[in-house]
Predict the 3D structure of the following.
Amino acid sequence: MPNPGKTFYVTTPIYYVNDRPHIGHVYTTTLGDVLARYHRLRGDEVFFLTGTDEHAAKVVDAAEERGLTAQAWADQNAAEFEQTFAKLSMTHDDFIRTSQDRHKSRVTQYVKALLDSGDVYLGDYEGWYDAGQEEYIPDNKAQEYDFKSPFNGKPLIRKTEKNYFFRLKEYRQALLDYIEANPGFVQPDSRRNEIIARIADAEDTPISRTGANDWCIRVPGDEDHGIYVWIDALFNYLTTVDTDDRRKFWPCNVHLIAKDILWFHGCIWPAMLMALKKQPGYDWVELPTQVYTHSFWISEGRKMSKTLGNFIDLETIDQYVDQFSLDALRWYLSTQGPLGSTDSDFAKSKFIEVYNSDLANTVGNCASRVTNMIVRYFDGVLPSPGREDQLAKSLRASAEGMYNNVNAMYEKTAIGAANEAALEVVRAIDNYIEQTQPFKLAKDDGQREKLGAILYQCAEALRIASLGLYPTMPLKIQELWKMIDCQYDVENGDLQAWTKWGGLKPGATITKGAVLFPRVQKD
Ligand code: MSP
């Protein structure tokens, strides 16, 4: 392993088990998968976590309506998330469910430690609650929202109850200091500014609810209170790796989330970790390196909604995979998605445009051209590199520069830009072919050596580009590797060494293979 001891831990939110998986869940998990595959390819030891958030109050209601126990309903729906992610070739290393004992017992321990230290205390709550989001809303925010949920428009509920509170206010300054000292902690920058503004008036926050039924983790020592679902859920990132063989993955490198849940991840979560870290036995609980907050997918220009009929549900996702391939979907999500602070539109016409220009006309076309010419002019035997002229040198420089460019982008979670950096190399090959016109040289026997050198350079640059494209398009790139006689241990990679020039050896067997991305007509 080229990066001994270097670990990379990436998480997605754990999804509410009441929902069916849709493009939003698939999006964040795809980003996690791309990052995980990239880091495995670099040789890091990776832990990629996703899962389901199960103790929401509405799970009990939904189960009752169906005459099921909450557990049976959760089992059914968690299975759907797991099957969806398996079908989409996600490579998570674990799937955490908050109803599992391994999670519940750890959460009980953490909350006990916070009760013992006084960071959690019993108090009275009176205020607003967004039942759909399972979220307590401060008075000033409730007013701003006109007492309606900003997420589903339903009226906020007035709640008066005895609650356990976490002393969030006491951590205000420490959080602000931390964020200032670690500008990469909340990304992108616009979200960092947003969270700084909100932390400035953070109040103590309820972490329990009363009238708890059996569907929750109890507050230790108090049968009347259940731990508030959000607190239970946030701890998943820690419970899953709080074992002797996994503690090395902490602190988490990237928590991927969307803007709807920034408050919990950018404020409550790090504050709870700060509190826990002070307790005996928890000095290893550092803060996560990054909370990366993306925006939302909308669909065909409008907010996704079931009634508008523009919801990108599992059936729609399947149709895209069938028509364009899974890797094409991953490409669209990774390069056109809402990684920044504006929402992105999932629209069929845009999908086809991007598919044709990046994949059919660029990656796919370049792979066909290069392999076809080697098969046609050299019977599929890779020729020798020969001498490099100026044009060849510049192609080589573009390929050799890719590793640093791609790496710098992945370090910033700039997944779209990392893909663009790899695609640049494919474009450089296309340019090189335009400039050197190998199909013309092929007509002249006296130019065989030159023709061979050009085709070697194209194939070698293509190989290097393919490594940069692999994390996003693992299936198609593996097909391409078969065509150019390459094999890589992608679980245990050495990307830096593999992207050095000269990996392809003259004499290698090049085959045509199927067209990777057939062109699609816009209908
Ligand atoms: N259970 C909580 C998260 C707990 S994490 C400790 C939750 N679940 S959720 O099922 O509502 O999932 C929210 C997440 O799904 C978002 O943060 C985002 O990752 C993803 N998305 C849901 N809808 C989305 C879009 N329309 N667009 C992009 N991603 C979105 O909140």
